[in-house]
Amino acid sequence: xxxxxxxxxxIHDVIERAGFKNYEIREYKPSxxxxxxxxxxxxxxxxxxxxxxxxxxxxxxxTPGATFPIGxxxxxxxxxxxxxxxxxxxxxxxxxxxxSGIVLLAIEILIIPGFGVAGILGILFIFSGLVLSLLNNNWxxxxxxxxxxxxxxxxxxxxxxxxxxxLSLWGSAKIFGSRRGIFKNLALTTVESAGKVxxxxx
Length: 202
Prior knowledge:
The chain is an all-alpha fold. The protein has seven helices and no strands.
């Protein structure tokens, strides 16, 4: 089977050999914005942003009202989803799915005692929103998605979440578990016994 019937010295020669006489060649040059978007959608960068999102949420739940951790998480989420949205990968429903997962997880941890359906759904929604936003799928139609791309997306999100939790637990022990931790004053470290009553003089 022949795959080529000739060769050309340059692009102009190839086009003329193909029988085209009147043509215009336009060279694509990525702009600065295109380069930034290409950098941000890199799997390594996406993984680091996911770690910041999960880590920020974790530390905010450790110190409610601190605002700094959740601010980092929100900023990382914007930087994560924005270039994917501009590239046409992340759709509105995928972003809403992710936000819904955050809300469900917060309700489970802050309002509902224990860990049940809301928490499980929250984790699934967060994971699905992050993975689906990396894929060029039409809802749950993956026929146009290459298997390798699917595996890379799932692996990127899964590994990033695991590393984020591991680093968050380690950082939490260093920050809150030590007497010299920078947030030691935000945690209650003393316990008063109900059996000890100090009577003052009248």
